[in-house]
Design brief:
heterodimer; A: mainly alpha; two-stranded parallel ribbon; 8% strand; B: alpha+beta; three-stranded antiparallel beta sheet; two-stranded antiparallel sheet; 5 helices; 5 strands; 21% strand; Ribosomal_uL22 (chain B); Ribosomal_uL22_bac/org-type (chain B); structural constituent of ribosome (chain B); transit peptide (chain B)
């Protein structure tokens, strides 16, 4: 990505800046600590060659950054944006739900029917939470939902009863 | 709105002038206000046309274009089902616009059956952008556009016209014919 290349370039330029400041301060000429007869400073040939090598790498990093050469014309842009693989495909797996008549996807539940079940379940859950009072108070028995004018049968002997004051919905078969 | 009489035979000079006194009416909405003179008995029945739009939708015009392109030429029911099962943000908005337009058609534009409509034109346009600052590193900043778009739709009563599917071979044949029909102009 151009951002990492930019960061590398920035890092390298900072390094070079530091090096040039170090040289200007005169801290790079490490000669012998004691007085010695001879040239005071060590030969700087490797330093100058290093400097020459630094220059091409500085220029190289500019050439390495990819940039668009020409402006993409609107015709070229349109060809790319309106290519059939980018257009939205028409879905052919939609069919009417046999229960309510709204449309649904073939492999999915009907959204309308699911929503109506979800609403009833939310009311039942609210009632259960009122019955329990707080978290982690679930009894260790099964629950059964009874609607108006319904009595618990023999199968519902040891179960917790959740009352709902409306008649049983046609889709809730128990 | 007597000055907005649309007539196929005569075009008065006055109708070309910008004479609208209202500030809110824009061109697309004004197309709903044209009143044609009563048709003769031998003329074919003019199908009802309903123009509807929604302005300044918080969505990109390029992304909205794909949805507009999807529903072009479909019946309104087919368009509504396709949009219902599309996961894009604009699909919900376009569906609302289509339902509003269908409602308008039945109530105000004398359309008998609400399913007897098809989408003749549907396209998106650029709305007014808000500008914000996007902060970059090192004190640099960019100007961020908060994009908005308009969505326009034209419903026409009747069965959608069948579009001839052109094969690649036909297109190539046409191109070669065009090349063959070229002549040298201003020649002897």
């Amino acid at each position: 990505m151009s951002l990492s290349g930019l960061l590398q370039f920035v890092g390298r330029s900072l390094q070079r800046l530091e090096l040039s400041l170090w040289q200007a301060a005169g801290f790079d000429r490490f000669g012998p600590a004691l007085a010695v007869n001879g040239p005071g400073i060590l030969p700087q040939s490797h330093h100058s060659s290093d400097d020459e090598n630094a220059q091409p790498s500085f220029l190289d990093s500019i050439f390495w950054m990819a940039a668009p050469k020409k402006r993409r014309t609107i015709e070229v842009n349109r060809c790319r944006r309106r290519n059939p693989n980018k257009l939205i495909e028409v879905k052919y797996n939609i069919e009417p739900c046999p229960e309510c008549g709204n449309m649904k996807l073939k492999h999915t539940l009907c959204g309308f029917c699911y929503e109506k079940v979800r609403k009833e379940t939310a009311i039942i859950r609210k009632q259960i939470s009122i019955m329990e009072g707080g978290p982690l108070n679930t009894p260790a028995v099964e629950s059964v939902v009874l609607y108006e004018n319904e009595t618990p049968s023999d199968a519902d002997k040891g179960k917790r009863i959740v009352e709902r004051n409306r008649k049983r919905p046609y889709w809730f078969n128990m | 709105m007597g000055w907005l009489l649309g007539s196929s035979s005569t075009l008065s000079q006055v109708s070309c002038l910008h004479t609208s006194p209202e500030l809110n009416s824009k061109h697309w909405e004004r197309r709903n206000l044209i009143v044609y003179p009563p048709q003769q008995k031998d003329e074919p029945r003019r199908p009802a046309e309903i123009h509807h739009c929604r302005r300044q939708i918080k969505y990109s015009k390029d992304k909205m274009w794909y949805l507009a392109k999807l529903i072009r030429g479909m019946t309104i029911d087919q368009a509504l089902t396709q949009l219902e099962f599309n996961d894009k943000k604009g699909a919900k908005i376009v569906k609302e616009v289509l339902l509003e337009a269908q409602d308008m058609a039945v109530k105000n534009h004398n359309v008998e059956y609400k399913s007897n409509l098809y989408i003749a034109e549907s396209f998106s346009g650029k709305g007014k952008y808000l500008k914000r600052i996007r902060y970059h590193g090192r004190g640099m900043f960019g100007i961020m556009d908060k994009v908005h778009c308009h969505y326009f739709v034209k419903l026409v009563e009747g069965v959608p016209p069948k579009v001839e599917q052109k094969t690649g071979f036909d297109q190539a044949k046409e191109y070669v014919e065009q090349l063959r029909n070229r002549t040298i102009i201003h020649s002897l």
